[in-house]
Amino acid sequence: MEENKFKYDDFEKDAIEQLKAGRSLEGKNGILAPLLQRLLNASLDGELDAHLKEKEQPNRRNGKGNKKIKTSFGEIEINTPRDRNSSFTPELIKKRQLTLGDGIDHKIISLYAKGISYEGICEHLEELYGITLSPASLSAITDRIMPEVYQWQNRPLEALYPIVWLDAIHYKVREEGRIVHKAVYHVLGVNHDGIKEILGMYIGEKEGARFWLQVLSDLQNRGVKDILIACIDNLSGFKNAIESIFPKTDVQLCIIHQIRNAFKYLIREDSKEFIEDLRAIYQASNIDQAERSLKLLEQKWGKKYPAIIRSWKNNWDGLSTFFYYPKELRKIMYTTNIIESFHSQLRKITKSKRVFPNDQALLKLLYLITQKVTEKWSMPIRNWKAAYSQLAIIYGDRIT
């Protein structure tokens, strides 16, 4: 497989250049052709892996043959693996097949990424295209993308990201015969051009500041030297973890998370009035006005809801960071809505997956969904030019 190893950075760079040149994603000479070639070759290797495991008699690989097949993306070259006993007959692309059926190339790339089960994909392929694959064969096929996933996880990053959002999403995974809850840690950054990018994806036992410390260390090891603003939830110790790796970074705690936490203590008849009083804090025009509103909140509600007031006061340094920035930046940084929106797109696809068989299956599917989602991230976030100009004034040499 080494000669067919897919180079994600090269594909990404080439795809961007072709898009800028006005070329389409699909059709002849479309930019998806290299990805299709990579997946077809991986699929054939996966079929042979499954074939070798199913046979009791001794058998092993015996080189590869090359041939070109026609697809809706144009003609591509594939490498068909062979076995020593010559008993392997590929189902995906048969020995004398020179044309990939209309639409099947799209199915190979997209069905698994849409969260469809192995059984569902097998039924679909057999019903529409007469291709018979067992779930075990399909699992072996999809496992072939893991080197690509690991390469993506370890790709070099830019030295500076003006703003990053950090948050985790949770899933159930089967582990050693029991079902455990796993946290998938995501880092979403905005580069100099205002384009969003998923910088990292990591699976941990549960969300905690200690694991976030490992995540931040990995970003640093992959080339990130500075982050101007980090937007996070109110997880205990999270802010300290960021400052230990990137000491110059300004940390903004998510206002929306802080407000949600208040609902744990509020009784229904007080909620509307209390939230209006909170709004006077985070919608204040400056830090002095916000602090005055916080004092009024304490005077009015402190005896009835001491836990809420204590939380706001204890977290105030992190909650109030955005008041020191112009309006163009405040709207971008005061919540983690950007990364939560990304998580909602993941949930749409994974909602039918109650339990994943292992960490690799979870990582594999989330990676494929992420690639589809981020294909659309080609435009700067709203009001980025104005926000970036303000960042340049505030941070000076750090941003250049």
Folded structure, characterized:
With 400 residues, the chain is α/β, with parallel strands linked by helices. The chain has 17 helices and seven strands. It has helices at residues 8-20, 33-54, 104-110, 118-129, 135-143, 146-153, 209-221, 238-245, 255-262, 268-282, 287-301, 306-314, 316-319, 327-333, 337-350, 359-374, 384-395, and strands spanning 61-71, 74-83, 160-175, 178-190, 196-204, 226-232, 250-253. It has a five-stranded mixed sheet, sandwiched between helices. Strands 1-2 form a two-stranded antiparallel ribbon. Helix 2 (33-54) packs across helix 5 (135-143), helix 4 (118-129) packs across helix 5 and helix 7 (209-221) packs parallel to helix 8 (238-245). The chain is elongated. The two termini are 41 Å apart.
Described by its quaternary structure, the protein is single chain
Mean pLDDT: 83
User: What spatial order of strands do you see in the largest sheet?
Assistant: 5-4-3-6-7
Rounded radius of gyration (Å): 25 Å
Question: What keywords describe this structure?
Answer:
alpha/beta; five-stranded mixed beta sheet; 400 residues; disordered N terminus; two-stranded antiparallel ribbon; 2 domains
